[in-house]
Each structure stands twice: as structure tokens, then as C-alpha cells.
Amino acid sequence: MVGPRRQPSRRGSMADVPHDMLQEIKRLEDMFTVDTTKLKAITDHCVSELARGLSKEGGTIPMNPTWCMGFPTGHETGTFLALDMGGTNLRVCEIRLPEEVGEFDIIQSKYRMPEELKTGTADELWGYIADCLQQFIEYHHEGEKLDQLPLGFTFSYPATQDYIDHGVLQRWTKGFDIEGVEGKDVVPPFQAAVAERGVPIKLTALINDTTGTLIASAYTDPEMKIGCIFGTGCNAAYMEHCGEIPKLEHMKLDPDQLIAINCEWGAFDNEHKVLPRTPYDVIVDKDSPRPGQQAFEKMIAGLYLGELHRLVLVDLHENPNVKIFEGQDISALKKPYSLDASFLSDIENDPYENLQETHDRFESLLKIKCTKPELELIRRLAELIGTRSARLSACGVAAICKKKGYKTAHVGADGSVFNKYPHFKARGAQALKEILDWTVGRDGKPLGRGNDPVEIMPAEDGSGVGAALIAALTLKRVQEGNLAGIRDPEAMLRGTKAEKRGSKEVQPNK
């Protein structure tokens, strides 16, 4: 059996660590390390749960059909708007898809999402978003007479979609808690706010950021099969054949037709059958706003990594058999979520043999002066939590590959953990190798970067380019008469022109 590959330790780093602390480090290693056998068991269970989510009975993983049907060809053309409603910013983009295959031009503006909006009223939220769209159009198209521009709206909150321009919010996330929106279609009030201001926009597609990531990445890379987000939360999307989706049987769709599935896989193993939860994972779940939900996400996503680290340190300090932070006031450390994923990232990135940067961060942020042995434990704990996150994340990717029979694939990934957390990519690649039993790379070449049969790589801009592409694909589909998941095809086409005259201030991008 191939065991997990450890990060190289610094020479002699544990030489002066006391016996009691060494024992604790060993205990934590045993607790947080996920070996190959366990990775394979998690992956196999995930495969069955993905299928259960597509069944008529459904399962814990929602497996939401998105009504984005098929991959882009690279020949899509036209001008489209994209709107991305994030937790911190609102982003508006105008994307022009020219005749050149796989190319695009983009202009964009960011608007801050005021904190008070997150707990305000629905009218205030949609009104603010419509105001931002109006400002964008007036700034970039002053004095122009425009046809209604098709809009792809990236709404990255769990939503059920009966149509591509429809989305019933299942629950708010990312700090939003606006009454009267959950359980309702978010499109009509958004459209009403836009119409009230006379903004020449027609919402063509409501999408999730994972779906956008998949489509944007596939636009420039035909080997792209899966889109993932590894950030504050975690999720994935992939293309499924309609014939493999029993819960859509009643629609009599072409069984070979591809449709993007927004997995919402953060809910994987809410029943706690296979994931190796520690006592600290149990506390994170119990103290969260929604206990019993998002079991997978709470073990791997950026929102929770720092909190896991903090809980372990507080527990060790309160253990009379372990001497850590002796005689010091750790009240700042006792504050929930006082450490975030970037804090762990900085610990792992500390370049100094004596971990001076970590020492200084603990002193400045938490008013704790750490000894050298304490710093070694802190560093090793960060490595363990970060490594577990990457290895468990790989189980979801491997599960989709096994379900679809992909022997080779590119996976487009976005999110702060994927892009910024040290070694996340390498640790995930190692886990995929163990789960899928690779011995050689593509075309018989040695394994390594660029040759791994399944490679997770940075994604294209899903919430911008992906949203625009999905709007383009939807309009093309309506024009061709493929109306599955289209609420009102005539209204979608009426007054909407993908081509627009006089585009200006366009910055090339690729």
C-alpha cells in the first residue's frame, strides 16, 4: 500500500521538542492523516452518493441539474453581460466573444457589497444590484441606444433550478440572512428591479460559480471535464448524460444529451458513514449555524481550517498533561474563528529555520509568546490540517472520474485555498495518484506535472467568462429549438441581440 507522502521536515526540527509534546504531535498525526485505504473507501462511497443524488429518491448531495447543456465549441460569438454576486463584492463584466476560436475580450467593474445589505430587505438587495448594473451600462455605453443585452448571473448560493433562468434559493450562505428570499425564485424580483430602472438587460442564465468554472475552462481547453471551487466553501460541477439522471426521466430528454450538474458536494457524508472526523470536526459542526449539514465542506474548506487549528491548540493548553503556552493569557486564541486559512498558510510558508515569522504572528495577533517546541507543534499541526484538506478534496475529484469512467481529464479549479494555500496542488495530485493507482503518466510518460492522467489546474474566470458563455449557449440552444429547461423561449429571444454595436474600452484577455 502506498502511504501518504509527507512534506519534507526541516533537519533536526524536532530535536528539542519535549517528550510530552512529541507524543501529542504523534497523536495528532494519527488523527489527521488519511491513508490510501481510507482515501479509496471515501471515494467509492462518494461515487455511490453522486448516483444517489441523481436518483428519483435523491440523497444528501443535491446534484442540481443546471440546464446548461453541452460544452462550448470555441465558436461562440456575441456580446454578453455577466454579473457575479459574491459575499464581499459585486462584479459586472461585459464579455465579447469574437470570431477567433477560444478568444474573448472583457471589461469589468467591481462594486462593494455593503455589509448592511446582507441582513436588510430583499428589495434593498435587488435594488442595489440593479443600480450597479445601471451605473455600468451608463458608464460604458453613454449615449448609445442598446438592444437588451443577454445577462449571465452567477448566483453562488444553493438553488434548485427547473429552468436555466430560474433559481429557488435553498438557503443563504456567505453571511447573508435576508428574510423572505429562501424557498423562492430569485429571478422575478431581480428582473423587476432592473425593469424599474429601465436597464436594457435580459437575464438569460442563472448559474453557479462551479458551472461557470467548468464552461469557461472548457472554452479554452477541450480536455476540461470538471470544474471545482476550493475556497471559503467547496463544490464541483461536471457534465452528466441525461440518461444517467433518473430524476429527469419524466422529461423524456435525449439520453445522450449532456447537462451540467452542480453537485453541491459540501453535503457529502452528512450521515457520517465514512469521513474520518476528529473530535475537533465534531465541535466545528456542533457550533456552526447549521449543525449536521455540509460535513465534507467543514473538513476541507477555507472557512474551517483555521478554526480546526485553533480548537486543537486551545484543547492542548487545557490538557494538564501537555505543557503549552504555560502561564500565558490565551483569551484571544479562545475567540472562535480568530484564525483563518491565511493564518495557516503563513505558518506553512514561514521560511525561517527557527519559525521566526510564526513566532511574530502569534505575538502580534494573539499576544502569545511561543517557545521553539511550541512553534514546531504549531507548524506540524498546520501541515496536517492543510494536507488532510487537499487529500480529502481529491476524493471528490476521483469520485467523478470513476463515475464517468474518465481515465484522463483536466479539472479546472478556482478559490482561495486552491490558489494560495501552500502545497495544496501537490498534495491533491499525490492523493489522486494513490486513489486511482497510477503507475505511469499520459502516453506512458513518467508521472509528474503535465503528465498526470487527471490534472487539477487553475481555472479560467468562471463567474465572468463562464457566465457569458452559458448565456451564449442558451440563446443558441433556443434558436435551434432545444428548449429543455427554457421557461419562455419567445421572451428570451424577444429584443435580445447577442451582437452589439460600438463596443469600447475593451481589454484583450485570454
TrEMBL record:
GO biological process, one term: mannose metabolic process
GO terms of molecular function: ATP binding; D-glucose binding; fructokinase activity; glucokinase activity; mannokinase activity
Keywords: ATP-binding, Glycolysis, Kinase, Nucleotide-binding, Transferase
Biased composition (Basic and acidic residues): 489-504
Pfam families (UniProt xref): Hexokinase_1, Hexokinase_2
Pathway in which this enzyme or protein is active: Carbohydrate degradation; glycolysis; D-glyceraldehyde 3-phosphate and glycerone phosphate from D-glucose: step 1/4; Carbohydrate metabolism; hexose metabolism
Keyword Transcription recorded: no
Region annotation Disordered: where it falls in the sequence: 489-510
Domain of life: Eukaryota
EC top class, as a word: transferase
Gene Ontology CC annotation, any one: cytosol
Domain called Hexokinase C-terminal: residue spans: 225-473
The UniProt record lists the keyword Ion transport: no
Annotated family: Belongs to the hexokinase family.
Protein's recorded name: Phosphotransferase
